[in-house]
Amino acid sequence: MTDGTRSNSLRSGPSPSGHFGDGLGGRFVAETLMPLLLELNAAYETAKADPEFRKEFEFYLRDYVGRPSPLWFARRLTEQLGGAKIYMKREELNHTGSHKLNNVMGQILLARRMGRSRIVAETGAGQHGVATATVCALFGMKCVIYMGATDVERQKPNVFRMKLLGAEVVPVTSGAGTLKDAMNEAMRDWVANVADTYFLVGTVAGPHPYPAMVRDFQTVIGEETKMQMQDAEGRLPDVVIAAIGGGSNAMGIFHPFLDDASVRLIGVEAAGHGLDSGKTAASISRGRRGVLHGNRTYLLQDENGQIDEAHSISAGLDYPGVGPEHSWLHEIGRAEYVGVTDDEALDAFQTCTQTEGIIPALESAHAIAHAIKVAPSMSPDTLVVVNISGRGDKDIFTVAEHLGVSL
Amino acid sequence: MSRIAARFAALKEQGRGALIPYLEACDPDFDTALALLRGMPEAGADLIEIGMPFSDPSADGPIIQRAAQRGLKAGATLPRVLEMVSAFRQNDADTPLILMGYLNPIESYGLERFCADASKAGIDGLIIVDLPPEEAAPLEGPTREHGLDIIRLVAPTTDDERLRLVLNHASGFVYYVSITGITGTRSASDDDLTAALTRLRAATDLPVAIGFGIRTPEQAASASRIADGAVVASALLATLADTLDANDQATAQTVPTVLQGVRALSEAVRRK
């Protein structure tokens, strides 16, 4: 977790009111939820300062999540690309198959401390939903997952997994039936069930303290990467690449490197059919500041401030917003944000599978695709880390369809 | 005195509370919404709340969500909303009008410009659902300058300490959200409302209107007696939705049926 007290550090945000830089982040919710957010913030601050909480978190990360995850030198991919040395941070090896469980484990322990008995969560690809259903099974808590009806359709294996784990999966039909709509519905549930319910947000977005709290639980990715690279190469990496939907896996691996100016941080947004196609999920590259789901951040929106539907082949990136801290890192230029299209991600999905024997999530395939683009022009002593945030078993049906294969 | 203050003062003289019906701009189309707005005072509306459609109304239930979607489909934008208000003001200089909506379209329009234009069109107050007092500073200058009230929501979850903060940032009247939940779902009991109002009265001299979960004329009458006004939104929008054709277009029944609904509410509120 993060030590938020250092000054002159890019790691000290957000402000006590939850702001990053000039007005990003914050708390933009209906009055009914404000007292709950303040209570949550106080509970989290207390837990963060409690060594017992940290010890408990670390115990579950090690013995249940299966951390640390390895840092893998991707030898064949490196040779094939003929440039930078590519390492892969293997978050897909975590229990439930993605980085999502890191955050979920932290928050479920907090929900237990707060005496909550019912958990609601939103999910896009279903990775966060599966992770949430998993810890609810582990601790015997009631679990309700909101998932866009479109996503329910394209992520059937994860829907079944959640149900096996005892969760109720509620398909959301409003809007385009994707992550944005699931988020709206989860917030409505929370407003209506404030007394016993904990809203377990899956990404570094939403009202304060969620962006900071989720980040803190995910920074274990970057902290391990730093030590593992030290062991492997005796120095820091030169480039860190991660995919961005809301941005939790990217923030988790970026954050511990924010003050290491030599490390280039590259966030890869889903460009969908192309950044200028109008069918994209690239909120930073093609959006502007706005307020949605409790925070001010970069959003895809029309000239009237109505939120656009995002598009990506990857359900986990199919969101018209992004975490406010990413918006801030973009504005101050500390991290770069680029786009990768559906087709490029599909190609990278296959390349990674065939050269490394690792089937990556379509989300992570976006990060790999960017590495494939830039690595060949880099010198062989350049160290690149790609965050493999999840495994791709859930995506084989989508990929098969795009490759014209019927299963 | 503002229109809002004048109206609540006049009702106090009459010894009754206000009926505050809600309509969504451009639902199901501009002209129908304008006809409803124009007909409401005569049907017994004391103040009127106008919803500004937003793509992601996360504090609203399915009935208002669908109304917002119909409004957006019919081309609702903030300029159109204000155009409707200006048209209404040509014939009605007294009925207070409140705009209710979410922050993003307003921020996109520009806070300063929006307050200037809304005031010019004849708006009296704003309810911005997702703008708590902690984040409201950028709006408070422009609203003061242009004579707009910021009407604040108070919820059952708002404790006494927070209530002071919220009220410090409130003007016009206070909107008591009678349930913890989204619009148009459950209802609070009279006992709960009475207890809540005792707490609010002790903390503010502003009029208090109760909203969320008021569906029937009886509930409106009771809420308007316990507080200073009753807001009815989802029930009227459900009435409206029932009159639409298969393509969600207005029919000859739409305006008279909704106004009849307002009249029934108003008669109950006026009954001694």
UniProtKB/TrEMBL annotation, chain A:
Entry GO CC: cytoplasm
Domain Tryptophan synthase beta chain-like PALP: 66-390
Cofactor: pyridoxal 5'-phosphate
Keyword Isomerase: no
CDD domains xrefs: Trp-synth_B
Span of the signal peptide: none
Domain of life of the native organism: Bacteria
UniProt keywords, alphabetically: Amino-acid biosynthesis, Aromatic amino acid biosynthesis, Lyase, Pyridoxal phosphate, Tryptophan biosynthesis
Modified positions (N6-(pyridoxal phosphate)lysine) in chain numbering: 100
Region (Disordered): 1-21
Pathway as given in its UniProt record: Amino-acid biosynthesis; L-tryptophan biosynthesis; L-tryptophan from chorismate: step 5/5
InterPro entries: Trp_synth_b_CS, Trp_synth_beta, Trp_synth_beta/beta-like, TrpB-like_PALP, TrpB-like_PALP_sf
Entry EC number(s): 4.2.1.20
Catalytic activity from the UniProt record: (1S,2R)-1-C-(indol-3-yl)glycerol 3-phosphate + L-serine = D-glyceraldehyde 3-phosphate + L-tryptophan + H2O
Polar residues: compositionally biased ranges: 1-15
Single GO MF descriptor: tryptophan synthase activity
Family per record: Belongs to the TrpB family.
Subunit details: Tetramer of two alpha and two beta chains.
Xref: HAMAP family: Trp_synth_beta (MF_00133)
PANTHER family associated with the record: TRYPTOPHAN SYNTHASE, TRYPTOPHAN SYNTHASE-RELATED
Function comment: The beta subunit is responsible for the synthesis of L-tryptophan from indole and L-serine.
Entry protein name: Tryptophan synthase beta chain
From TrEMBL, chain B:
Record keywords, A-Z: Amino-acid biosynthesis, Aromatic amino acid biosynthesis, Lyase, Tryptophan biosynthesis
Organism domain of life: Bacteria
GO molecular function: tryptophan synthase activity
InterPro entries according to UniProt: Aldolase_TIM (IPR013785), RibuloseP-bd_barrel (IPR011060), Trp_synthase_suA (IPR002028)
Entry-linked Gene3D superfamilies: Aldolase class I
Catalysis performed (reactions): (1S,2R)-1-C-(indol-3-yl)glycerol 3-phosphate + L-serine = D-glyceraldehyde 3-phosphate + L-tryptophan + H2O
GO CC term, one of those recorded: cytosol
UniProt EC number: 4.2.1.20
Positions annotated as active site in the UniProt record: 49, 60
Pathway stated in the Swiss-Prot or TrEMBL entry: Amino-acid biosynthesis; L-tryptophan biosynthesis; L-tryptophan from chorismate: step 5/5
CDD domains xref list: Tryptophan_synthase_alpha (cd04724)
Family under the similarity heading: Belongs to the TrpA family.
Summary of the function given for this chain in its UniProt record: The alpha subunit is responsible for the aldol cleavage of indoleglycerol phosphate to indole and glyceraldehyde 3-phosphate.
Subunit structure: Tetramer of two alpha and two beta chains.
Listed PANTHER family: TRYPTOPHAN SYNTHASE ALPHA CHAIN, CHLOROPLASTIC (PTHR43406:SF1), TRYPTOPHAN SYNTHASE, ALPHA CHAIN (PTHR43406)
Protein name stated in the entry: Tryptophan synthase alpha chain
Source organism: Acetobacter nitrogenifigens DSM 23921 = NBRC 105050
Name of the gene this protein is made from: trpA
